[in-house]
Design goal:
The structure holds two protein chains of two kinds. Chain A is 43% helix and 16% strand. By secondary structure, chain A is α/β, with parallel strands linked by helices. Chain A has two domains: 124 residues, no CATH class; 120 residues, no CATH class. By secondary structure, chain B is of the alpha/beta class. Chain B has 17 helices and eleven strands. In chain B, strands 3-4-5-6-7-8 form a six-stranded parallel beta sheet. In chain B, strands 9-10-11 form a three-stranded mixed beta sheet, with no helix packed on it. The chains are: A alpha/beta, B alpha/beta. Chains A and B meet through helix 5, helix 6, helix 7 and helix 8 of A and helix 1, strand 1, strand 2, helix 2 and helix 13 of B.
Chain lengths: 257, 466
């Protein structure tokens, strides 16, 4: 039994699964940087190998199902500690019982994974709701303006919302910046990609220049927000249930409060 | 900015804000819609903000008793220019503040004049700005058929307010609005939806039925009699090219009514809704607890609390109608004109019909499962799915999302009952009430207190209502 340490990539994780079958049974999979060696198991740093990861990837798709593969990928995107072991146990079970694992909601291995997937899915939804763009002047005077948003999601959902925003604002360049993970999606004309992004490689290091009327629209939005509430029905608890305070930092309508 | 304040304040008592029911990938210059709708924010009152909900103007010739914008009420009056509002919508939309526009209006000059301005604004939005986001347009009773049709062609959802749950209340509180004037546009919308083959109906009420054929066509009597009358079709022939599937108000029509202003019972309110669902196949009926905003001799006293819990129970019952296969007569079959404020309507119904329970989850049909308190459509589907592979045990129910604390009194799992020792309505009701009392109190923890007139005015002034 060995603890496998991987580099944090999805391919790395799948390579570990490969080693579970062909090298030594895994007692657990952990990210390299946060691993605490234990007395019980030896550990091995796994080098990510594309062909091994591809084999596992395809095996999951064929022997389990595309549906399960998607669940596994979404679970991998979560920021929850120990997700790797949940994924490992799910894959091992999936190879044993095949596609029907998708309907076995009450098996502990399946439920553990589905719980994580649900959290990731919920946060994706929250991002569709709570991303707030600021309209920035583009680099070329008179050129297109840039829609720029800062987010700090708990799970790495940025790639899951890219399609939505790149389609919706097809003709505006869109940058959604995940501050915590220092990455961003950049989208324009229906195409998008994920890139490392910390804002420092922008010309003046400080970010973008707001368009002229940006602040006035922000104020209009705050005004609207304050006035649409019915005072007789004030219910902060209900509000916070739907709009958890951890997102407020980047919400235009409430971050001034 | 003041304009937005005033016109948002005037619009906030409109209930619906949903952006659901239409799915459209991006086209035009910007925008798309999602079947499920997306809420973007929640106001301090806990109501979601999905659409920019404003009035085009609050200058009104009507004098409905309950309305902030009634002619004799002394509030500041404002209007948007159509282009101004279209631009504002687009700018908000770009920043992902909103999903689209909910445009309503007070009746300025005449219904047609107002509708024309609404149409102008919406057409600018769609054609000049290439906006493909969600548009919900309020239809003003009395509008001409042609204008209504053209508004429908640019809007995703239309709604005509029935305002009051009964003819009597409408006559008393909104004397200038006539029932016939309200039903005429509703009928036209339903018929056009049939013509564009996009009538979907409320929830799962008409699941598996073909709604889009002539037999559902509404004749002059308001009943589906299959006879397409000339008067109805004449308006539709105006835009022949526009009969493409889904081209007209793809997200259907809704309506809203105020509860607690007149003295209707819950049973008659829900009967009205059921009628609206069955006749017009509308997507939803919204309810709003009456909030006294203006002094009126015939309306509840100004210090009356808005009946929030009643509204909540009516919404729950409404869901039972649309998604759970219940009928109003069933809900009120034995006893009472009103819903029990302390228990949800499904539990109330189950307790009154205890002879149908307990239900064995491993053999019950989907429809039966849906009638068990604590089981919704998701958990019912999960139960059906797992049953194909393995028996559903009691422990599995919780994992499937069943609300055990309610369901346990009404189910059998593999032949075993997991509730309390005695299977009698009173015992079950008591245990349920004990359990829920904690939850119920906290749900409305800012319970409305009867407040003094002075304090009330102060609050309203702070809110900018007066």
């Amino acid at each position: 039994m060995t603890d496998y340490l991987y580099d944090g990539t999805f391919e790395g994780l799948l390579t570990c699964v490969y080693h579970h079958y062909y090298t030594d049974k895994a007692s657990g999979i952990y990210p390299k940087e946060s691993y605490q060696p234990s007395l019980l198991n030896g550990y091995m740093e796994v080098e990510t190998e594309q062909d091994k990861s591809d084999r596992v990837y395809e095996a999951i798709a064929y022997k389990i199902s595309d549906y399960s593969l998607r669940l596994i990928y979404r679970a991998y995107l979560s920021g929850i500690d120990g997700k790797e072991n949940v994924i490992l146990r799910y894959i091992l079970l999936g190879f044993r019982i095949g596609p029907s694992i998708g309907s076995m909601h009450s098996l502990p291995e399946v439920k553990a994974l589905e719980d994580i997937v649900r959290k990731v899915g919920n946060e994706r939804e929250r991002m569709l709701q709570f991303v707030r763009f600021e309209v920035m002047e583009g680099p070329i005077a008179g050129g297109p303006q840039i829609l720029y948003a800062k987010i700090e999601p708990e799970h790495d959902v940025i790639a899951l919302v890219a399609h939505h925003f790149s389609e919706r604002f097809k003709h505006d360049p869109v940058i959604i910046h995940d501050i915590g993970r220092a990455k961003a999606i950049v989208a324009f004309e229906g195409d998008w990609y994920v890139t490392d992004f910390d804002g420092t490689h922008l010309p003046d290091g400080s970010g973008f220049i707001m368009s002229e009327d940006e602040l006035s629209y922000q104020n209009l939005w705050r005004t609207y927000f304050d006035h649409i509430a019915i005072k007789e029905r004030i219910n902060p608890r209900c509000q916070k249930n739907h709009m958890p305070v951890r997102y407020w930092k980047h919400l235009t309508e409430v971050n001034g409060i | 900015m003041q304009k937005l304040q005033i016109l948002a304040d005037s619009a906030k008592y409109d209930v619906s804000c949903s952006s659901s029911g239409a799915s459209r990938a991006a086209g035009g210059r910007m925008g798309s819609t999602h079947t499920s709708g997306i809420c973007h924010s929640w106001g301090a009152d806990g109501r979601c903000i999905s659409l920019l909900k404003v009035l085009l103007t609050n200058k009104c010739v009507y004098n409905c008793e309950y309305c902030v914008n009634r002619r004799t009420n002394d509030v500041p009056r404002e209007s948007f220019e159509p282009d101004e509002l279209a631009r504002l919508t687009v700018e908000f939309y770009r920043r992902n503040y909103i999903e689209g526009l909910f445009l309503s209006s007070a009746v300025e000059v005449s219904p047609d004049y107002t509708a024309e301005r609404i149409l102008q604004c919406l057409e600018l939005l769609r054609y000049k700005y290439g906006f493909m986001g969600y548009i919900h347009a309020k239809v003003i009773p009395g509008v001409s058929q042609e204008l209504l049709h053209r508004i429908g062609l640019v809007a995703d959802r239309l709604s005509v307010n029935v305002e009051m749950p009964s003819r009597e209340s409408l006559a008393a509180f909104a004397p200038q609005k006539k029932v016939e004037q309200i039903f005429a546009p509703m009928k036209q919308i339903t018929n056009t939806l049939i013509e564009t083959r996009s009538l979907k109906g409320p929830g799962t009420m008409f699941k598996g039925q073909r709604l889009n054929d002539a037999s559902n066509y509404l004749g002059p009597a308001g009943l589906a009699d299959g006879a397409a009358e000339d008067s109805v079709t004449s308006a539709l022939s105006l835009a022949k090219g526009a009969r493409r599937k889904g081209s007209f108000a793809a997200a259907g029509q809704t309506t809203q009514m105020i509860i607690g202003a007149g003295n209707e019972s819950d049973a008659s309110i829900l009967a009205t809704s059921e009628n609206l669902y069955r006749t017009f196949k509308m997507k939803r009926v919204y309810y709003s607890a009456y909030i006294p905003v203006v002094d009126s001799p015939i309306l509840p006293d100004k210090s009356t609390a808005p009946p929030l819990r009643r509204e909540h129970r009516i919404y729950q019952a409404d869901w039972l109608l649309r998604f759970y296969g219940f009928t109003v007569s069933e809900l009120f079959k034995s006893g009472g004109e009103n819903l029990d404020p302390d228990l949800d309507p499904k539990v109330t119904w189950a307790l009154r019909n205890l002879d149908e329970f307990p239900i064995e989850v491993n053999t019950a049909s989907y429809e039966q499962l849906m009638r068990i308190p604590g089981i919704g459509h998701l958990s019912a589907k999960r139960i059906m799915r797992q049953r194909r592979f393995a028996a559903v045990r009691f422990d599995d129910l919780k994992k499937m999302g069943v609300v055990i604390k309610r369901a346990k009194y009404f189910v059998l799992c593999c032949g075993r009952y997991y509730g309390d020792r005695s299977f009698a309505p009173e015992t079950i009701k008591n245990s349920l009430l004990q359990m829920e009392s904690g939850l119920q109190l906290s749900m409305f923890d800012n319970d409305w207190k009867r407040i003094e007139e002075g304090e009330r005015r102060e609050k309203l002034a702070a809110a900018g209502v007066i």
